[in-house]
Amino acid sequence: MATLYPPPSKRQKRAQAEVARQQQDIDTSIPDGTVRVRFVDQATGESGNLPVLTVPLSQASTKNLELLLNNLKDQADDQIPYRFFPDGTTEALADKDDLYNALVKPGKASAEAEIVLQYAPQAVFRVKAVSRCSAAVSGHGDNILSINFSPISSSRMASGSGDKTVRVWDCDTGTPVHTMKGHSGWVLAVSYSPDGSLLASGGYDREVRIWDPNTGKQIGGPLKGHTGFITSLSWEPYHLQEPGRPRVASSSKDGTVRVWDAIGNRIDFALSGHKGNVTCVKWGGTGRVYTASHDKTIKVWDAAKGTLINTLQGHAHWVNHLALSTDFVLRTSYHDHTRKVPATQEEKLAKAKARFEKAATINGEVWDMRTRKLKEDLPGHKDQVFALDWSPDGERVGSGGADKQVRIWSN
């Protein structure tokens, strides 16, 4: 009687697949031999603590070099995609290249000499999985419709609700710090200024209000002028602001966008041209304002002159949201992971501008979500979820919904 073996386990299948993949990576047409490789950070021009490595030519593919660099930088469990630039060139190696066919065989480099490869990360933003709800805080008397983390610290978050209030929360203790009252309708949008000193809110009452998030007090009176409810808010980037004159843009169901002097409590100008509800406004780092609308178009405006630059067409239905690749650095200005605040106004402006320029010019690509699988499911809300926001450090996600609760999720 034949012996029946049990089917391989998932771990065994993964191990077999990895062996097969490694075997496929070895190009038998490449001659035997090795090459010495030195990795240099493109941003700093230095190798740091990375050693010079001897790599078999048959395994010196771009893909294997990326795995090797991640292991050297202790990132094996959290891989970062890199591009490699042969020293003295501005053209990166292609994803399917290897050092022999791309450099040695054409005579661009010698296998006998050290090959210097400058490396640069391909992705600016990275998504980390969150796995548990660290706090569920109650207090609002109706649906939570908008949330926004402070750019200063992940321990502060603002929320807007159908109960007509804005609340600032301490995410570490799960308690409300301030409850701001003034709106006469649902609060549909909340947004911290890039330096974290101001908080704007917009509501169903067609008004925009400016608050001091540290005291919970309103600054000036309500900003009136819209004839439809407020759909979104976006602050002028910090490095573009006139000192002492922060501005915020509001979009509305009335088909217009209004730009407000937040401290002066007055309107600068209105942008009109859409033929439907303006669903989203974004203020870019180069002085452009971008708007999306139910009229199926995206419009680009000059924020200095208040004039239309371009209309982007092609959508077959409403455009409900916009995202800029530099959103994160614009929202956090001079605040970064070091938590070091520049001493002077000039240094703050310079740091905010430098962060934007670095994010705007870094090498990047549009990524294909190959697996199309859910990364993480976060159960907990008992009804619809209306609002989500990442904290500045990427460690927390805030959510709010129809169950009248704000939930804080952490790694």
Automatic annotation (TrEMBL):
Subcellular location: Nucleus, Nucleolus
Transmembrane segments: none
One GO biological process term: ribosomal large subunit assembly
InterPro entries assigned: WD40/YVTN_repeat-like_dom_sf, WD40_PAC1, WD40_repeat_dom_sf, WD40_rpt
Annotated signal sequence range: none
Pfam families assigned to the protein according to its UniProt record, in alphabetical order: WD40 (PF00400)
Entry keyword annotation includes Repeat: yes
Region (Disordered): 1-27
Main location: nucleus
Source organism, top-level taxon: Eukaryota
Segments annotated as WD repeats: 137-179, 180-221, 223-261, 271-311, 378-411
Any one Gene Ontology cellular component term annotated for this protein: nucleolus
Keyword Repeat attributed: yes
Keyword annotations: Nucleus, Repeat, WD repeat
PANTHER family: NOTCHLESS PROTEIN HOMOLOG 1, WD40 REPEAT PROTEIN
Protein name listed in UniProt: NLE domain-containing protein
